[in-house]
Please model this.
Amino acid sequence: MAKPKIMLVDDTRLILELEKSFLKVSHIDVVTAGNGAEALELVRKDPPDLIFMDLNMPVMDGISCCTLLKADPFLSSIPVVMLTTAGNDQDRARAQQAGCDDFLTKPIDRRLFLDMARKYTDAVDRREVRIPCQIPVLFLLHESPVGAHALDIGDGGLFLASREEVVPNQELRLALFLETERTPLLELKGRVAWVNQEGKRVHSGLPTGFGVEFVEPAQWQKDELNGFVDAARKGRGEG
Model:
């Protein structure tokens, strides 16, 4: 089964690399273009599932490219998210007139970028880079504690192997048995970011379970997570 494809269009290499870094843990293909003309040529050869396009570019800007895409009956259904300058209502009006499906403003916020991408394809993962682990975790489900194991963890979230039924955006309270000297048990708030259902897996390399994004951790909780992750990386020879 072919992986979903996301196209990133921007004339600034730094922006393209930043956007690519946001998507590096997602099970998708990423293709890039440096202007609207290049993007149009690539789209006609192999249409992507989603396009993030800068508005201001040389050769062909995002407005012209989006207008041509939306006028083509074979390509018009591809969602186009236009990147505009914050506070520039005129640019937003022009992009909307060109037929774009959504907007993001620069500078690009990682969370908003991934939330926007996930709106159009659930193959996009909001996670930070994580390390494999086997951490016992308790979480409350319908006011009852449920045991599970985290199979990977980062400073922004974790993956729980579990057959319990949860839904995206469901809020959870978590207790992580980190077994560190300072904080052997770390309690956090979380939110279900995505679900690996039996027979319908977002990530084929992971078992049935769900990804959890930590919600508004306090600074000391972030420090504990960072310390645990850094120590685990060094233990694996990665740091």
In short: The two ends are 35 Å apart (CA to CA). The first helix runs from residue 13 to 22. Helices lie at 13-22, 36-45, 62-71, 89-98, 110-120, 219-235.
